[in-house]
Design brief:
By secondary structure, the chain is of the alpha+beta class. The chain contains seven helices and 18 strands. Its EC number is 3.4.19.12.
């Protein structure tokens, strides 16, 4: 579909990639179904191993060289490279597209003392699907809010409460460690260039048997992650920066070219309040509108104020139950040869060796298992982002 003439060289074969992964002692069968999210982490963890050390086996960046060799045993596999592997490893270390950081914040409910912020690395966000409410569709925002929602952690030693208790004792008597309840809050400390979101569709019945959740989770072509981003004390989110909002325009100019929708809410004659988030509208905010809104809603979110904006690039869907099934993929068509840096608006449905065209509506109506978003930057946020992410 992306080429006028099909040749043998343009047919992709994953067997060479599986051969390399088996050399890393991964047990991957060519005849059994492999969980897509698990395979994703197998690949990323293998690349992590190669990043941190000098590879002793074929580098994953050189898997294409295996296609040029025939009838060789695993011990005879070699790779060819135009330079030493060290620059490749260093480049991958600084340009890991899926690497992000989670922040974990703990605050004592008794003395309100805040523990040091903890940072953890992630390659994908694994989101549980909250229970559905009748009459209200499930959205990706619901899953993200559930992921970052605060939770109480009981019986935690609070050093600050212990110090306060010790100051109140006489003759320097030793006091026991004070245990209190903390509030734990997750945020995204650093967002990656490529964001992989895993929707957990595995659940367990009252009898302990695994079940698959088939609910449709609404997601949009563009994803705003600003409200989930962790900001240091004293640093305000960029959308509240008056310099950025001095001359707001109705269009969003993306560095990757056209493709972002026009933000209707900032145009004359429309409400200024941004009530839409990732294509959804909170029911609690609907009464604030001066006039009733038609349904379906003919407006799109105001993307021009978003610093952390992502564009949907691929969706993995699982058909079947927890015991068997089949994975299919929706992905954007490759860019044209004339403009390799552009982003295509044509979607493809891929099932093994079967490929057909698909519409965006079909993609957004699918029961997603994995979502792949890629970061886009508005021109007014490019320079600021380079400084804030350091």
């Amino acid at each position: 579909l992306s080429c006028q003439e099909v040749t043998d060289d343009e047919v992709l074969d994953a067997s060479c990639l599986l051969d390399v992964l088996r050399m890393y002692r991964w047990q991957i069968s060519s005849f059994e179904e492999q969980d897509a999210h698990e395979l994703f982490h197998v690949i990323t963890s293998s690349l992590e191993d190669e990043r941190d050390r000098q590879p002793r086996v074929t580098h994953l960046f050189d898997v294409h060289s295996l296609e040029q060799q025939s009838e060789i045993t695993p011990k005879q596999i070699t790779c060819r490279t135009r330079g030493s592997p060290h620059p490749t490893s260093n480049h991958w270390k600084s340009q890991h597209p899926f690497h992000g950081r989670l922040t974990s914040n703990m605050v004592c409910k008794h003395c309100e003392h805040q523990s040091p912020v903890r940072f953890d690395t992630f390659d994908s966000l694994s989101l549980s699907i909250p229970a559905a409410t009748w009459g209200h569709p499930l959205t990706l925002d619901h899953c993200l809010h559930h992921f970052v929602s605060s939770e109480s952690v009981r019986d935690v030693v609070c050093d600050n409460c212990t110090k306060i208790e010790a100051k109140g004792t006489l003759n320097g008597e030793k006091v026991e460690h004070q245990r209190t309840t903390f509030v734990k809050q997750l945020k995204l400390g650093k967002l990656p260039q490529c964001l992989c979101i895993h929707l957990q569709r595995l659940s367990w019945s009252s009898h302990g048997t695994p079940l698959k959740r088939h609910e449709h989770v609404q997601f949009n072509e563009f994803l705003m992650m600003d409200i989930y981003k962790y900001h240091l004390l004293g640093h305000k989110p960029s959308q509240h920066n008056p310099k950025l909002n001095k001359n707001p325009g109705p269009t969003l100019e993306l560095q990757d070219g056209p493709g972002a929708p026009t933000p209707v809410l900032n145009q004359p004659g429309t409400p200024k309040t941004q009530i839409f988030m990732n294509g959804t509208c909170s029911p609690s905010l609907l009464p604030t509108l001066s006039a009733p809104m038609p349904f379906p809603l003919p407006v799109v979110p105001d993307y021009s104020s978003s610093t952390y904006l992502f564009r949907l690039m691929a969706v993995v869907v699982h058909h079947g139950d927890m015991h068997s099934g089949h994975f299919v993929t929706y992905r954007r068509s490759p860019p044209s040869a004339r403009n390799p840096l552009s982003t295509s608006n044509q979607w493809l449905w891929v099932s093994d060796d079967t490929v057909r065209k698909a519409s965006l509506q079909e993609v957004l109506s699918s029961s997603a298992y994995l979502l792949f978003y890629e970061r886009v930057l508005s021109r007014m946020h490019q320079s600021q982002e380079c400084k804030s992410e350091e």
